[in-house]
Amino acid sequence: MTANVSSSRPLVELKGISKRYGDLLANDSIDLSIERSEIHALLGENGAGKSTLVKILYGVIEPSAGQILWEGRPVSIGSPVEARALGIGMVFQHFSLFEEMTVAENITVALSNDWTLARVRARLGDISRAYGLALEPDRAVWTLSAGERQRIEIVRCLLQNPRLLILDEPTSVLTPQEAEHLFGTLDKLAADGCSILYISHKLEEVRRLCRRATILRGGRVVGTLDPRAKSAREIAAMMVGAEVGEVRSGTPHRPRGEMLEVRGLSMPAGSLHGQSLHDIFLSARAGEVVGIAGVAGNGQSELFAALSGERPADRPEVIRIAGRDCGTEGIDARRRLGAAFVPEERLGHAAAPTHRLSENTLISHAAAEVSRSGFILIDAARRLAQSIVKGFDVRTPESDPQARKLSGGNLQKFVIGREIIRRPKLLVVDQPTWGVDAGAARLIRQALVDLAGEGSAVVVVSQDLDELFEIADRMAVIHQGRLSPLRSISEWTREAVGLEMLGETQLHEASHAP
Q1: What is the pLDDT of residues 33-85, one digit of tens each?
Q2: 3-class state of residue 429 by DSSP
Q3: Is this prediction's pTM over 0.85?
Q4: Which CATH number is 363's domain given?
Q5: Positive/negative CA dihedral, 451, 454, 460, 462
Q6: Contact present, 418 and 361 (Cβ < 8 Å)
Q7: Whether residues 364 and 465 fall in one domain
Q8: Which of 13, 330, 357, 406 could join 385 in a cystine, given CB atoms 3.0 to 4.6 angstroms apart?
Q9: What is the pLDDT of residues 93-130, one digit of tens each?
Q10: Which helix (H) or strand (E) holds 446?
């Protein structure tokens, strides 16, 4: 009888969960239940309280009030170890990997003592193939793209056979094909009895996967619904408290002179397992958005490093910015030519985690904008940072906080705003809306389109095809370090892009120049 009662209860229930940080109430009396074999979505804009809530469930932080019931029994989850012992696994949006260790070693150290390196290696191939998340066990993590790192996190969690799997933005760096394969895996896991708490800003995939969704806004539950019964726009409006419109093109883009010219760029891999670049031709004209699509790990990071000057080319004429040959110049020299750059990894690469927003602004702008005395004054940097915060709706916990204290979406808005506020002649941005909510994504995309409308050249490297089809004027696809010819966005179909991403077409002729 007890077993029957237990089996009729939800797998996990959160009752009146609150978490207070001083005057900030991050979670306010939240109730949430997850049924057995259910894929349940947790939705909300950045800063709504989602991360705090799931960290409480996973034992990372303690609630200030409330109760957690596991199969009807009150439990106290004091650590991730205790969470895993209950059967809870979590894949975080931000990676927790050791850079110098291999894929197999990273997975092994996160598992219990009975998981040896040999056992992990034996299981890794089967798990990777089953889930469509290819991994090479002997590759060092520092050589991997963000997409490949995300795969480690997912596989590492699934090896533990969790009863509740928490996924935080799991498809943010996956291709549509990889995402569909993952969806099939999650459906199978749910059918086999695993419950899934699914956090995503991609509302169409939520509508595809989930039968129930709980929406948070300002730390409170504002509704629980069947996402299939609402449109993505209606769900987004509940998340942000207002209607989320589409990106407006405004004045049609009228491309003018070349702001970026890449002519026959080839570059060896930066590491043993990195991706070489082969005879890249690329151009971006003032007044247009150029999109670069591709599967993670096919040379996007290497191309960004070459364009930004983090890895100079061997000849000046290979890269030309604003009419100047600069292939052998570094990032500061390219900034002085009017270029700006936003890398994929926002915390650590685009922003120093322990530096304040004003200090990060100072570092970024110093090469291009100096005061009469030869440097930017910190007071001016603070005022500029405040302008970015206001203009790009950056939600901050305090005045001029450290970068690490911002949520992922708010930090992304700040980093992109920090570069756009300079009104650069050329902006190159890698994965501009990775892991950000619908409202923030719209703001960022609109800012990129507006920048091009004002006469800048904008190059967007993205794995989000919806994003590229929405904002790009021309697009190319990168595969194994080779770039297809640029085409007008109207000449592309999703099928054609997919084939290019898989390398199944022959459009990489060296003689083709844009």
Answers
A1: 999 999 999 999 877 899 899 999 999 999 999 999 999 999 999 999 899 99
A2: strand
A3: no
A4: 3.40.50.300
A5: positive
A6: yes
A7: yes
A8: 357
A9: 767 888 889 999 999 988 877 888 988 888 888 887 77
A10: helix 438-453
